Protein backbone atom coordinates (compact mmCIF):
# COMPACT_ATOMS: atom_id res chain seq x y z
CA UNK A 1 0.00 0.00 0.00
CA UNK A 2 1.23 3.47 -0.84
CA UNK A 3 1.80 6.28 1.65
CA UNK A 4 -1.06 8.76 1.58
CA UNK A 5 0.32 11.18 4.14
CA UNK A 6 3.89 12.15 4.83
CA UNK A 7 4.59 14.41 7.82
CA UNK A 8 8.09 15.83 8.15
CA UNK A 9 9.65 17.68 11.07
CA UNK A 10 6.35 19.15 12.16
CA UNK A 11 6.57 21.49 15.15
CA UNK A 12 3.92 23.53 16.87
CA UNK A 13 4.18 26.30 19.44
CA UNK A 14 1.46 28.48 20.89
CA UNK A 15 3.19 31.69 21.97
CA UNK A 16 6.25 30.23 23.63
CA UNK A 17 4.68 26.96 24.64
CA UNK A 18 5.95 24.00 22.64
CA UNK A 19 3.15 21.53 21.94
CA UNK A 20 5.26 19.13 19.85
CA UNK A 21 8.48 19.32 17.90
CA UNK A 22 10.02 17.47 14.99
CA UNK A 23 7.15 15.09 14.57
CA UNK A 24 7.65 12.64 11.69
CA UNK A 25 5.25 9.96 10.51
CA UNK A 26 3.61 8.46 7.45
CA UNK A 27 0.18 6.94 7.00
CA UNK A 28 -0.53 4.20 4.49
CA UNK A 29 -3.57 3.93 2.28
CA UNK A 30 -6.20 1.79 4.01
CA UNK A 31 -4.56 2.08 7.44
CA UNK A 32 -6.64 2.38 10.61
CA UNK A 33 -4.74 4.49 13.10
CA UNK A 34 -5.63 5.49 16.65
CA UNK A 35 -4.23 8.91 17.52
CA UNK A 36 -3.49 8.55 21.23
CA UNK A 37 -1.99 10.76 23.90
CA UNK A 38 -2.72 12.43 27.23
CA UNK A 39 -4.85 15.56 27.57
CA UNK A 40 -3.07 18.51 26.05
CA UNK A 41 -0.56 16.42 24.05
CA UNK A 42 -1.68 18.15 20.86
CA UNK A 43 -3.92 15.60 19.15
CA UNK A 44 -6.58 18.12 18.13
CA UNK A 45 -3.87 20.62 17.21
CA UNK A 46 -2.26 18.05 14.90
CA UNK A 47 -5.62 17.32 13.26
CA UNK A 48 -6.31 21.02 12.79
CA UNK A 49 -2.93 21.41 11.10
CA UNK A 50 -3.62 18.44 8.80
CA UNK A 51 -6.96 19.99 7.87
CA UNK A 52 -5.28 23.31 7.03
CA UNK A 53 -7.11 25.13 9.80
CA UNK A 54 -3.86 26.02 11.52
CA UNK A 55 -0.32 26.63 10.27
CA UNK A 56 2.45 24.65 11.95
CA UNK A 57 5.35 26.63 13.39
CA UNK A 58 7.75 24.50 11.37
CA UNK A 59 7.73 21.48 9.11
CA UNK A 60 5.66 20.20 6.22
CA UNK A 61 3.08 17.55 5.43
CA UNK A 62 1.83 16.21 2.17
CA UNK A 63 -1.27 14.20 1.33
CA UNK A 64 -1.41 12.03 -1.75
CA UNK A 65 -3.07 14.04 -4.51
CA UNK A 66 -5.98 11.61 -4.68
CA UNK A 67 -6.93 12.00 -1.04
CA UNK A 68 -10.42 13.28 -0.28
CA UNK A 69 -10.61 14.08 3.40
CA UNK A 70 -13.69 13.69 5.58
CA UNK A 71 -13.96 14.93 9.15
CA UNK A 72 -16.26 13.76 11.94
CA UNK A 73 -16.32 15.84 15.12
CA UNK A 74 -17.68 14.74 18.46
CA UNK A 75 -21.37 15.66 18.40
CA UNK A 76 -22.44 18.36 20.79
CA UNK A 77 -24.83 21.25 21.26
CA UNK A 78 -27.86 19.70 19.67
CA UNK A 79 -30.76 20.79 21.86
CA UNK A 80 -33.75 18.62 22.45
CA UNK A 81 -35.92 20.97 20.39
CA UNK A 82 -33.52 21.06 17.40
CA UNK A 83 -36.02 20.90 14.57
CA UNK A 84 -34.36 19.04 11.69
CA UNK A 85 -34.93 15.36 11.03
CA UNK A 86 -31.91 13.08 10.78
CA UNK A 87 -32.37 13.00 7.00
CA UNK A 88 -32.53 16.80 6.72
CA UNK A 89 -29.52 17.17 9.01
CA UNK A 90 -27.42 14.79 6.90
CA UNK A 91 -28.63 16.66 3.79
CA UNK A 92 -27.17 19.92 5.12
CA UNK A 93 -23.92 18.77 3.57
CA UNK A 94 -25.48 18.52 0.10
CA UNK A 95 -26.58 21.19 -2.39
CA UNK A 96 -29.87 22.89 -1.45
CA UNK A 97 -31.62 21.73 -4.60
CA UNK A 98 -32.02 18.02 -4.09
CA UNK A 99 -31.89 16.34 -7.49
CA UNK A 100 -32.69 12.63 -7.72
CA UNK A 101 -28.99 11.86 -7.77
CA UNK A 102 -28.44 13.81 -4.56
CA UNK A 103 -31.48 12.27 -2.87
CA UNK A 104 -30.22 8.82 -3.80
CA UNK A 105 -26.80 9.66 -2.41
CA UNK A 106 -28.29 10.85 0.90
CA UNK A 107 -30.39 7.68 1.07
CA UNK A 108 -27.33 5.57 0.42
CA UNK A 109 -25.35 7.21 3.24
CA UNK A 110 -28.32 6.90 5.63
CA UNK A 111 -28.40 3.21 4.77
CA UNK A 112 -24.65 2.87 5.18
CA UNK A 113 -24.84 4.36 8.68
CA UNK A 114 -27.94 2.38 9.79
CA UNK A 115 -30.12 5.48 9.92
CA UNK A 116 -32.54 4.86 7.07
CA UNK A 117 -35.31 3.45 9.25
CA UNK A 118 -35.18 6.39 11.63
CA UNK A 119 -34.46 9.08 9.04
CA UNK A 120 -37.57 11.05 10.06
CA UNK A 121 -36.69 11.13 13.75
CA UNK A 122 -35.79 14.64 14.85
CA UNK A 123 -32.10 15.12 15.61
CA UNK A 124 -33.06 16.57 18.99
CA UNK A 125 -34.77 13.31 19.90
CA UNK A 126 -32.10 11.01 18.49
CA UNK A 127 -29.77 9.06 20.79
CA UNK A 128 -26.10 9.97 21.09
CA UNK A 129 -25.14 7.10 18.81
CA UNK A 130 -27.66 8.12 16.18
CA UNK A 131 -26.51 11.75 16.27
CA UNK A 132 -22.91 10.65 15.95
CA UNK A 133 -23.75 8.42 13.00
CA UNK A 134 -25.60 11.35 11.39
CA UNK A 135 -22.33 13.31 11.54
CA UNK A 136 -20.58 10.37 9.91
CA UNK A 137 -23.25 10.19 7.17
CA UNK A 138 -22.78 13.92 6.56
CA UNK A 139 -19.05 13.44 6.12
CA UNK A 140 -19.59 10.46 3.81
CA UNK A 141 -21.61 12.64 1.43
CA UNK A 142 -18.31 14.16 0.31
CA UNK A 143 -17.13 10.72 -0.87
CA UNK A 144 -14.00 10.80 1.26
CA UNK A 145 -11.37 8.09 0.99
CA UNK A 146 -9.82 9.16 4.29
CA UNK A 147 -11.73 10.07 7.39
CA UNK A 148 -10.57 11.78 10.57
CA UNK A 149 -12.63 11.37 13.72
CA UNK A 150 -11.96 13.48 16.81
CA UNK A 151 -13.16 11.68 19.96
CA UNK A 152 -16.27 10.57 18.11
CA UNK A 153 -17.07 7.85 20.65
CA UNK A 154 -16.32 9.89 23.77
CA UNK A 155 -19.87 10.43 24.98
CA UNK A 156 -21.49 7.25 23.65
CA UNK A 157 -22.73 4.25 25.59
CA UNK A 158 -20.88 0.95 25.03
CA UNK A 159 -23.33 -0.36 22.45
CA UNK A 160 -23.30 2.84 20.40
CA UNK A 161 -19.48 2.83 20.52
CA UNK A 162 -19.33 -0.68 19.12
CA UNK A 163 -21.83 0.19 16.40
CA UNK A 164 -19.80 3.21 15.29
CA UNK A 165 -16.56 1.25 15.36
CA UNK A 166 -18.11 -1.56 13.33
CA UNK A 167 -19.18 0.99 10.75
CA UNK A 168 -15.62 2.29 10.54
CA UNK A 169 -14.37 -1.27 10.20
CA UNK A 170 -16.84 -1.85 7.37
CA UNK A 171 -15.79 1.36 5.60
CA UNK A 172 -12.17 0.34 5.97
CA UNK A 173 -12.58 -3.26 4.81
CA UNK A 174 -15.14 -2.80 2.06
CA UNK A 175 -14.25 0.67 0.79
CA UNK A 176 -10.53 0.86 1.68
CA UNK A 177 -11.23 3.96 3.77
CA UNK A 178 -8.14 5.23 5.58
CA UNK A 179 -9.09 6.05 9.18
CA UNK A 180 -7.41 8.35 11.70
CA UNK A 181 -9.26 8.17 14.99
CA UNK A 182 -8.48 10.38 17.99
CA UNK A 183 -9.43 8.60 21.18
CA UNK A 184 -8.72 8.13 24.88
CA UNK A 185 -10.41 4.74 24.84
CA UNK A 186 -7.56 2.24 24.75
CA UNK A 187 -9.65 -0.95 24.90
CA UNK A 188 -11.73 0.28 21.95
CA UNK A 189 -8.61 1.27 20.01
CA UNK A 190 -7.05 -2.13 20.71
CA UNK A 191 -10.15 -3.90 19.46
CA UNK A 192 -10.69 -1.98 16.24
CA UNK A 193 -7.60 -0.02 15.21
CA UNK A 194 -4.58 -1.57 13.57
CA UNK A 195 -1.91 1.08 14.15
CA UNK A 196 -1.31 3.79 16.69
CA UNK A 197 0.27 7.22 16.62
CA UNK A 198 1.12 8.26 20.16
CA UNK A 199 1.70 11.93 20.96
CA UNK A 200 3.44 12.46 24.27
CA UNK A 201 6.36 14.47 25.66
CA UNK A 202 6.26 16.73 22.59
CA UNK A 203 7.00 13.88 20.23
CA UNK A 204 5.20 11.15 18.27
CA UNK A 205 5.70 7.41 18.21
CA UNK A 206 4.09 5.01 15.77
CA UNK A 207 3.49 1.27 15.81
CA UNK A 208 1.08 -1.65 15.65
CA UNK A 209 -1.87 -1.23 18.00
CA UNK A 210 -1.33 -4.66 19.54
CA UNK A 211 2.18 -3.57 20.58
CA UNK A 212 1.06 -0.34 22.26
CA UNK A 213 2.48 -0.26 25.77
CA UNK A 214 1.75 3.34 26.78
CA UNK A 215 -0.27 3.79 29.93
CA UNK A 216 -0.93 7.47 30.29
CA UNK A 217 -4.33 7.61 31.92
N1 LIG B 1 -5.42 28.33 19.79
C1 LIG B 1 -4.68 28.03 20.86
N2 LIG B 1 -3.96 28.97 21.50
C2 LIG B 1 -3.19 28.67 22.56
N3 LIG B 1 -3.06 27.44 23.07
C3 LIG B 1 -3.75 26.45 22.49
C4 LIG B 1 -4.60 26.68 21.35
N4 LIG B 1 -5.15 25.50 20.96
C5 LIG B 1 -4.69 24.56 21.83
N5 LIG B 1 -3.85 25.12 22.73
C6 LIG B 1 -3.11 24.41 23.78
O1 LIG B 1 -2.34 23.42 23.14
C7 LIG B 1 -2.27 22.24 23.94
C8 LIG B 1 -2.72 21.06 23.10
O2 LIG B 1 -4.13 21.13 22.92
P1 LIG B 1 -4.93 20.03 22.10
O3 LIG B 1 -6.37 20.38 22.22
O4 LIG B 1 -4.35 19.88 20.76
O5 LIG B 1 -4.62 18.70 22.95
P2 LIG B 1 -5.30 17.29 22.88
O6 LIG B 1 -4.21 16.27 22.86
O7 LIG B 1 -6.29 17.25 21.75
O8 LIG B 1 -6.05 17.24 24.28
P3 LIG B 1 -7.41 16.52 24.74
O9 LIG B 1 -7.12 15.06 24.78
O10 LIG B 1 -7.64 17.09 26.10
O11 LIG B 1 -8.48 16.91 23.75
C9 LIG B 1 -3.12 22.52 25.17
O12 LIG B 1 -2.26 22.92 26.21
C10 LIG B 1 -4.01 23.65 24.74
O13 LIG B 1 -4.37 24.45 25.83
TrEMBL record:
Residues 5-217 form the ABC transporter domain. Keywords: ATP-binding, Nucleotide-binding, Transport. Transmembrane segments: none annotated. One of its GO terms (molecular function) is ATP binding. InterPro entries: AAA+_ATPase, ABC_transporter-like_ATP-bd, Metal_Ion_Import_ABC, P-loop_NTPase. Belongs to the ABC transporter superfamily. This is Mn/Zn ABC-type transport system ATP-binding protein.
